[in-house]
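Supplementary notes (optional reading)

For those who missed the lab, this is the record we used. Protein: SprT-like domain-containing protein. Length: 189 residues.
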Amino acid sequence: MKLCAGTCTYEIGGRCVISLSEPLLKYRSVKELKETLLHELIHAYLFVTNNCKDRSAHGPEFIFHMNRINMKTGLNITIYHSFINEVNFYRTNIWRCNGPCRLEAPYYGFVKRSINRAPGPNDSWWNLHLSKCGGKFTKISDSDKTRNSTVFNKQISNSYASKEETQKTNIDLSSDSDVEIIQIVEISD
């Protein structure tokens, strides 16, 4: 997972699985890790108590619990994460269209992804692109397997954190040695 900080999936039999994205969370503060986990735990609570299985539901019940927890803890659980720099860091597979859309804002014919999948019929915007532009996409950049995490850590730290916020999680999320209260079922990268 490189676009979503966490997910909560309701499975048959009443089991909820919370998955956290190590690539997006490993350079964030402990506070932000807690906020992400609590966000997903609200989904799990609603799945179990309200039979609400819509993962994208951030309705009144979700907002009620989010605000209640924020007031009691001083945390800042939100509906969506703002880890823009981390998400963009992993968007290393880049395609560019050779049609007229390459001259139009806001994308100028570029498609950037974390996964190596060319633009095509599986994209919701594909048919509109075919009818309005008709151009073909060519890959112009591949994933960089040798990213320098020290440089990345510095870039991310400089872009969002104050001195108080620079305490990074650096928790090995694949082990439960740092987790006392919960058991992490799945970690995705």
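If you only remember one thing from this example: Residues 30-50 form the longest helix (21 residues).
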